[in-house]
Backbone:
């Protein structure tokens, strides 16, 4: 496929609430240098040629499951 699904990530501001369709990512996970939030309600599907560089990858299985759970919440999927 020439496209890929991506979830935007933003840095966490102090006092920022985490919603059920978001996932908090600790700074030491995924190659990020600060606490961040995966925004599962902003799913994007860009052409792979538009991607400039890879910043990191979330390999922690617990965090991956939290992202799956937040995506299911967002999409109304009941497992």
Residues:
């Amino acid at each position: 496929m020439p496209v890929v699904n991506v979830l935007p990530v933003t840095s966490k501001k102090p006092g920022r609430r985490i919603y059920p369709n978001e996932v908090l990512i600790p700074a030491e996970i995924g190659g990020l240098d600060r606490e961040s939030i995966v925004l599962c309600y902003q799913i994007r599907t860009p052409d792979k040629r538009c991607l400039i560089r890879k910043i990191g990858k979330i390999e922690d299985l617990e965090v991956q499951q939290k992202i799956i759970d937040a995506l299911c919440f967002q999409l109304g999927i009941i497992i």
Notes: The mean pLDDT is 94. The domain at 9-75 is CATH 2.30.30.110 (SH3 type barrels.). The chain has one domain: 9-75.
